[in-house]
Amino acid sequence: MSAPRLMVMIASTRPGRAGLPVGRWFAERARADGRFEIDLADLAEIALPFFDEPHHPRLRQYAHDHTRAWSARVQAAEAVALVMPEYNFGYTAPLKNALDFLYWEWHYKPAGLVSYGGIAGGTRAQQLIKPVLTQLRMVPAAESVVIPFVARYIVDGTFRPDDTMVQSATATLNELHRLQRALAPLRAGEAAAG
């Protein structure tokens, strides 16, 4: 049986973003963990336009190739980790846009949160994204990774976490693995219902 696929989504598209080294670090931690197949989804590379579908996502009547490609990629994931900065006490517009493009594809997938920023480490963004995730029938993991003053931990383009961040990543991966197994029957039931 193949390992469940974990999509690690880098939610910042800003040039010079900390999200790229943080996302690569978390993806590598997850790969080394060995329980997941990893899909590193960089929203800067994916470059979804601002939501441009003429029909509501719940209908799955996608008019554009970029939406069909995004749908297939998200559908293939069994868990998601959002690597997200905090902008003005909230999450990024590209992240909300990527979520809003789809509906059914997100259902019954656990969501791990890896946030970074200044003194709060992205915790306010984490709290604001949770109602959006639950409306999409996702299940936010109780454990998360919080990275305050993220620039201190990036050296020559590489994220160098402290022990607390490493332990938090392990706890988050443990919870994502448990949740994806628990939610698998719901995903399968929904897929069978069409």
Describe this structure in words.
The chain is of the alpha/beta class. It has a single domain (5-193), classed as Rossmann fold (3-Layer(aba) Sandwich). 43% of the residues lie in helices and 20% in strands. It contains six helices and seven strands; from the N terminus they run E-H-E-H-H-E-H-E-H-E-E-E-H. It has helices spanning 19-33, 43-46, 65-76, 93-100, 123-135, 163-193, and strands at 5-10, 37-42, 79-85, 110-116, 139-147, 154-155, 158-159. The strands form two sheets. Strands 2-1-3-4-5 form a five-stranded parallel sheet, with helices on both faces. Strands 6-7 form a two-stranded antiparallel ribbon. Helix 1 crosses helix 6. The radius of gyration is 16 Å and the shape is globular. The model has no long low-confidence stretch (mean pLDDT 96).
Count of extended strands:
7
Radius of gyration: 16 Å
> How many domains comprise the coordinates?
1
**Major beta-sheet overview:** 5 strands, parallel
- Percentage of residues in strands: 15-25%
Number of helices: 6
CATH superfamily: Flavodoxin domain
Keywords:
about 190 residues, alpha/beta, Rossmann fold, five-stranded parallel β-sheet, two-stranded antiparallel ribbon, globular
Sum this structure up briefly.
The protein has 194 residues and is α/β, with parallel strands linked by helices. It has helices at residues 19-33, 43-46, 65-76, 93-100, 123-135, 163-193; strands at residues 5-10, 37-42, 79-85, 110-116, 139-147, 154-155, 158-159.
